[in-house]
């Protein structure tokens, strides 16, 4: 059985970069792993982090709650 997986190798890169950005890995780290500058990474993959307000809001809420308990 032939696989389409290796037909377009950049699809694998795109999937990996998108997954990491959506998981909250900092763009600086993702850019280093992908071999891009942060500027190029965000230009290409901005669509991956757009619409993630609920994720960032939750992270900020947790950080503020942790700060209040100390």
How would you characterize this protein structure?
This protein has 70 residues and is mostly helical. The chain contains four helices and no strands. The protein is elongated and about 55 Å long.
Shape descriptor reads elongated
Largest sheet, if any? none
Radius of gyration: 16 Å
Number of continuous helical runs: 4
Distance between the termini: 58 Å
Mean pLDDT level: 81
| Total strands | 0
Strand and helix order: HHHH
- How much of the sequence lies in strands comes to under 5%
Structural key phrases:
70 residues; mainly alpha
Give a topology summary:
Blueprint: H1 9-22, H2 27-34, H3 38-49, H4 53-68
Compact overview of the structure:
This protein has 70 residues and is mainly α.
């Amino acid at each position: 059985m032939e696989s389409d997986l290796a037909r377009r190798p950049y699809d694998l890169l795109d999937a990996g970069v998108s997954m990491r950005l959506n998981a909250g890995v900092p763009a600086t780290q993702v850019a280093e792993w992908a071999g891009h500058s942060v500027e190029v990474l965000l230009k290409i993959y901005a669509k991956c982090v757009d619409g993630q307000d609920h994720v960032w809001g939750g992270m900020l809420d947790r950080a503020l709650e942790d700060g209040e308990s100390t």
